[in-house]
Amino acid sequence: MNPNLSAADLAQAPSWWLLALESRAPFELGASILASPLLHYAARGDGHPVMVLPGLAAGDLTTLPLRQFLQDRGFKPYGWELGPNYGPREGVLESCIARLRELRREHGCKVSLVGWSLGGVYARELAKMLSEDVRDVITLGSPFTGNPRASNAWRLFEFASGKKIGDAKLHEQIKRTPPVPTTSIYSRTDGIVAWQCSLEKNTARSESIEVVASHVGLGMNPAAFYAIADRLAQAEGEWKPFHRDGWRRWAFPDPDRPG
What we know:
- By secondary structure, this protein is α/β, with parallel strands linked by helices.
- The protein has helices at residues 7-10, 16-20, 25-34, 36-39, 64-72, 92-107, 118-129, 154-161, 168-175, 222-232, 248-251, and strands spanning 49-53, 76-78, 111-116, 134-140, 182-186, 206-210.
């Protein structure tokens, strides 16, 4: 075994039973609806724009519950308006850049990016290219590090995008943390992406937050909703890592525990 390989490099795709547990996603949406009175106490925003990018083979309809929640909390959420996400086909990244710059001009302030799964990979790359336009980045179950085949969706990605995974230079680029405040929200019970591949380094402006969720349910999970609002509500230039004090330790497992 190569001693230089990390746990993420050695990770394998989630097991069949975790994949089967992805069927709980509708219950996570139901839990968010039931938790609406409690989520009313989630952090409020300052009205700045938030661009939400969907996952592989998904479109803006899938991010509607999250965008409605952000709207209720005082943010200005927007879809990516590019139809289903079929991967980095020709023109997709350029269209994302144009959309981001449009929102920046319209609002006269930096834009936050929230990306679900593959959408989070886009969000990270946009923040690297346009750091002066991006306030912060939040990803949900996004596979940005480790073994690119530690997923139950890599074949779907190759089919949908027409591109092969495994380009070492590209994966090294994707691993790099964006130069803006960055949060990765992930779940150890993710049935699509190996959770080790969604772990961000803990630094003065980057972190990981663990929730108990399915991959398909991450964008409609009440704990994820709360964490997203908490991160986005921080004043620009005053970012601090997420804390797990008090009741939060019961809702948000310790991401640094062994496993």
